[in-house]
Design goal:
- By secondary structure, the protein is an all-alpha fold.
- Helix 3 packs antiparallel against helix 4.
- The longest helix is centred in the first third of the chain and has 24 residues.
- The N and C termini lie far apart (45 Å).
Length: 134
């Protein structure tokens, strides 16, 4: 033998079979899913905005610089945890952030619905692929 290539035929077949099984189960699970929008929003709100720290840091980086943006967001995050306030209020209390962002801009940055990126494109592709299967 010159290597493990002899086992590839066996492994590839098993991979295909296992993938098919996993996809069949996921199709069954997804067919019965009903999103609970109110519960999803409540789950997001439980983080008091901390789920948005990356978005805030990325938005501040061009103005403050990456390290300073990270530090400002870390300072605000520490206040969220220590004081139980939301991220928007904590950010408004960080002088570096308040100097470059209005209260409205902070509110927009900490809103999860404003940080969906390419979600719509991904959804469109999944729906198109699922429609093609039926």
């Amino acid at each position: 033998a010159t290597g493990p290539w002899q086992t590839e035929a066996l492994a590839l077949g098993q991979c295909a079979t296992l993938t098919h099984g996993a996809l069949a189960h996921m199709r069954f699970v997804c067919a019965g899913m009903q999103p609970d929008v109110a519960r999803m929003r409540a789950n997001l709100d439980e983080t008091r905005g901390l789920i948005m720290t990356e978005a805030v840091s990325m938005a501040l980086a061009p103005t403050l610089g990456r390290a300073e943006a990270h530090h400002a967001v870390k300072t605000a995050s520490d206040r969220v945890i220590a004081e139980g306030i939301d991220l928007g209020a904590a950010l408004a209390g960080v002088p570096e952030v308040a100097a470059v962002l209005s209260p409205a801009a902070i509110a927009a940055l900490v809103e999860p619905a404003s940080y969906l990126g390419s979600t719509d494109a991904f959804i469109d592709r999944v729906v198109a692929a699922a429609t093609a299967l039926n």
